[in-house]
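Researcher: I've got a protein sequence and the SMILES for S-adenosylmethionine. Could you write out the 3D structure of the bound complex as structure tokens? I'd like something to compare against our soaking experiments later this week.
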Amino acid sequence: MDARQQSPSTARNREPILAVLQLLLGERARVLEIASGTGEHAAFFAGAMPGWIWQPSDPDEAARASVAAWCADLGNVLAPAEIDARAAGWDVAGPFDAVIAINMIHISPWEATLGLMAGAGRLLRVGGLLVTYGAYKRGGAHTSPSNEQFEQWLKARDPAFGVRDVAEVEAAANVQGLRLREVIEMPANNLALVFER
Ligand SMILES: C[S@@+](CC[C@H](N)C(=O)[O-])C[C@H]1O[C@@H](n2cnc3c(N)ncnc32)[C@H](O)[C@@H]1O
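Model: Sure. Here is the predicted complex with S-adenosylmethionine in place.
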């Protein structure tokens, strides 16, 4: 049975996200991905950049099986780790040059973002980067009607989910010694937030 799952959004966002990561990380980097989901990003990024050592993770067992299946032929992708961002300790050995979380912050409880920041603060080397990608509010307001509709959909799924404001994510990062270095506008009203330890 083929464990590979597919997410339609990955085909649309993987190239712009890869371009950002290439600029930020260069040729060689040890990367921890939180919330790898299907594993399509891991396979695409690690396939394009053989000098990156990619540690995928997800709390969901079926997702981890999907990641492993997508990345089976890639020698620079490690076995997916079971990581719930909220956990006090993560079962991976740092330090990492980068921690990446794509489309996680809005579709998990706020505690997952707090955990993401704490984990990145623990496991990033000094000067290492946390990159989060997704939909965000700015100045307390949605950046587009489609993001507002998206938040309604998220809240109907789980009231604990929601499009977070860049400022509240930044404040959570600051507590863990992470500084917001850059906000990069991405296609389809998404942002990439780049934090530095
Ligand atoms: C919308 S999917 C995004 C997956 C992938 N990054 C992508 O962009 O296609 C959200 C992912 O977040 C994961 N997730 C939810 N809660 C989490 C948590 N507390 N810690 C880590 N990952 C979590 C889910 O298992 C799921 O794989």
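Model: The mean pLDDT is 97. The pocket of S-adenosylmethionine is lined by residues 7, 10, 34-38, 41, 58-60, 63, 84-86, 102-104, 107-108, 112 (CB under 6 Å).
Researcher: Great, I'll pass this along to the crystallography team.
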